[in-house]
Structure formats: C-alpha cells, structure tokens
Specification:
two-stranded antiparallel ribbon; seven-stranded mixed beta sheet; Aspartate Aminotransferase, domain 2; alpha/beta; 15 strands; 35% helix
Length: 408
C-alpha cells in the first residue's frame, strides 16, 4: 500500500477518533496531542487480535496442544519481528517485561546483580561494605526520564550525571572526562535517553556509544520517547564501536501500542546470572523435591510466569506497522509538523518554547505561557485545562517524569 494511503488508513482507524469531551463550555472534539505519554489503539490491529489470535488462544507453556503451539508461534513471531526491526541478531535477547521501559531497566539491573533489597540495605548497609573503587558506576544524561535514573540510584552503583552542552545535547567532553576519572571501576555503564521526552532533542547515539566503548564502558539506551519516530540499530562489535549493548523500549507509545509490554533488547553476553531475575514457571527444564535446573535459553529463562501473551503479540504488530510506514516517511512528516509548530509559536511573545529550536528533534514540544506580570508564567495545569476545556486538546502539564531536568 502506498505510504499516503497507509497513513490515511491508520489515521482513520484510531479508536476514539470521533470522540468528544464535555467541558464547562460544552462538548469539544478530542484532539489528542499526548503521544509522548502513550499512543492510541487502532481498530484493525484489535480486529486482527480478536479474529485471528484470540480464537486460538492458550498458554504458551505447552506446544503439545494445537492452541498452545499456535499461540507460542504467534508470540515468537512477534519477538522475531521486533528483533528484525531493531537490528538485533542471535547475539541479542529480546525480552518482554512489565509495562514499559521502567520494567526493562529494572530487569537488566536485576540480571546484572546490581540491586540489594532495600530492607537488607537499611538494616545492614551492604552497599557501604563495597570498597568505593570496586563499585559499578553509571553515567546518565542531563534529561533522563525517572525510569532511567531512579532504578540506577537504588542500585549499588554510583550514579554520575553528565552535563548538557550549549546545544542541549549530552556533553561529550564531560562524559570523556568522567570516563577517565572512573577508569579503575570494574563495571562502567552509560545509560542515556535516545531523545529527551521534554524537548524532543535527539542524542547522537553513534558518538556517545563509540566514546563509551573506546573507554571499555557499556552502552545502554532508553528509547521510550524515541522509538516511535527513529530507527533503532543494535549493531555488533564486529561492525565498529557504535553498537548498542542494551535498549529499553515502551511500545505503548507507538501508534496501536496501548496494551503492550515493555521491551528489553540486550546482548546475550550480559546475562551471566546463575539464577533468573524472576525465577518461577517457565524458567526451568527440571524440578524435583530437592533440586532444579534452569533453562539455558535466555529469552525463556528471563520471562518467568505466564507472560502477557496477547500484549506481546500486539507489540510485534505495532513494530511491523512502523516498519511498513518506513522510518524515512515518519521522520519527514514529523519534521514538517514540529517545524511548523515551533515557527508559529516562536512568533507569539507570550509563548516560550523550551530547548534548542534548531537541534535535530522529535515532534515533541514543551512550552510555557507568560503571565502579564514580568518573569512569571501561567501554571502548567491551568494551561492544560484551558486547552482541554476550550479546544478539546489533550496535552500534559508538568515535568513529564523528568524531574531533575526540570529543576536544572
């Protein structure tokens, strides 16, 4: 299907397209402008799940029955679609986990053994027992979402925040200096957002990953905000230093994505843990009254319990849809939208658009509205309420779960 026809079909299939919200000034047609928080469902994807997947639904922990086998194949096909769409190979594990990037980050921290339960930490102060020069160190960016900062703060690692440069990007000079300063640490990790979910400014993943790897550090990336709009290329060490060691994805932010799990895609060599992060059903090959033996296959060993089966299949479908539209088409359209918005709002002296207006960015725009009193602004939630009540525009006020960035 030609891209224009496909995009028109997608737009016409958004569930809730013709909805209205009742406000103090009467009903207003819904104009959804909150895709940074979550995408919207598509009728044709839900129809496919209802008519093709659900009639043959069964638990995936058996392949002896026809329904169990078919459901397992649906889910593994979804995993393979995602693997292809992010440039992963058999060097990587693709894990469905939780409900977004938060769970993906947390899962990897558990796999790496970087977490002490808070009750034990409070009682025995175990992290303090680790010599300072033996602690892992994690470098995070200046505009991280809480999901890519708080889990690291609660780990046994020291967290170092890298500054923002004059253009709104990760300061590479500061990162290199901190890598050199912590060169004696046994484990160094860079965990950065591929794009800010506040300003939309895109990080140079190639430059940052290359720098990390030249210094022997791991390269982790939070693609929660960026995944719907940019290409994700895991790569391989054989192809150069710009490969990614792990990525965290929230598929619910893609069009058609509500009701999908989080995704962790990571190099299999990171999974050296003897015990799965979540041991339980589906993680073992053998259990008797006194012994048990875990699976060798990472993807099944690290997905304990009955998975969110239909949700996982939906995740594969939304990535397949993104692939069908094409990243060049997505980027071109989004660029036109965001430039038109910024140029229009820049002309209004009451509106301050945040961030570098010239930087490469996603179609995410944050702004504040000036009050009559110099140096003051309208409260963000008042602006959101006005947009909703007068125009039906669904927006979001506040720090977008990037509190430290807002404070800076």
């Amino acid at each position: 299907m030609p891209s224009d026809d496909l995009i028109a079909y997608i737009r016409d299939s958004v569930i809730g397209l013709d909805e209205v919200v009742d406000g103090p000034f009467g009903p207003r047609p819904v104009i959804y402008a909150d895709y940074t928080a979550s995408g919207r469902s598509l009728s044709f994807l839900e129809d496919h799940l209802r008519t093709v997947v659900l009639p043959l639904y069964a638990n995936t922990h058996t392949e002896s029955s026809g329904t169990g086998l078919q459901t397992t194949r649906f889910r593994e096909e979804a995993r393979d679609i995602i693997r292809r769409c992010v440039g992963a190979t058999d060097e990587h594990a693709v894990l469905f986990c939780g409900s977004g990037s938060t769970y993906a980050v947390d899962r990897l921290i558990g796999v790496l053994g970087l977490r002490v339960p808070c009750q034990l930490e409070d009682r025995y102060h175990l992290t303090e027992q680790i010599p300072a020069d033996e602690r892992p160190v994690v470098f995070v960016g200046p505009f991280e979402h809480h999901s890519n900062e708080l889990p690291w703060r609660e780990s046994i690692a020291d967290v170092v925040t890298i500054d923002e440069d004059a253009d709104g990007h990760v300061d590479l000079a500061h990162l290199e200096a901190e890598l050199a300063r912590h060169a004696d640490r046994p484990l160094r990790i860079g965990s950065f957002s591929a794009a800010s979910n506040v300003t939309g400014i895109i990080t140079d993943t190639v430059a940052v990953s290359s720098l990390l790897h030249r210094h022997g550090a791991l390269s982790f990336w939070d693609y929660a905000a960026a995944a719907p709009y940019v290409d994700i290329a895991m790569g391989s060490p054989a192809d150069g230093p710009d490969y990614l060691d792990a990525v965290f994805i929230s598929p619910h932010k893609l069009i058609g994505g509500p009701g999908t799990p989080g995704l962790l895609v990571a190099r299999e060599e990171l999974f050296t843990n003897r015990v799965p992060d979540v041991p339980g059903g589906g993680t073992v090959r053998f259990v008797n009254p006194t012994e048990h033996d875990y699976l060798d296959d990472v993807e099944h060993r690290e997905e304990g319990g009955t998975p969110a089966i239909v949700d996982s299949i939906r995740a594969g479908l939304v990535f397949q849809l993104k692939e069908a539209v094409g990243i060049d088409e997505i980027r071109a359209r989004e660029e036109r939208f965001v430039r038109r918005a910024i140029e229009s709002w820049e002309a209004n002296e009451r509106i301050d658009v945040l961030g570098n207006h010239e930087a490469e960015r996603l179609s995410i725009v944050s702004f504040v509205v000036r009050h009559d009193t110099p140096g003051t602004y309208l409260h963000h939630n008042f602006v959101v309420a006005v947009l909703n009540d007068l125009f039906g525009i669904q927006a979001r006020g506040g720090c977008s779960c990037a509190g430290p960035y807002g404070h800076r």
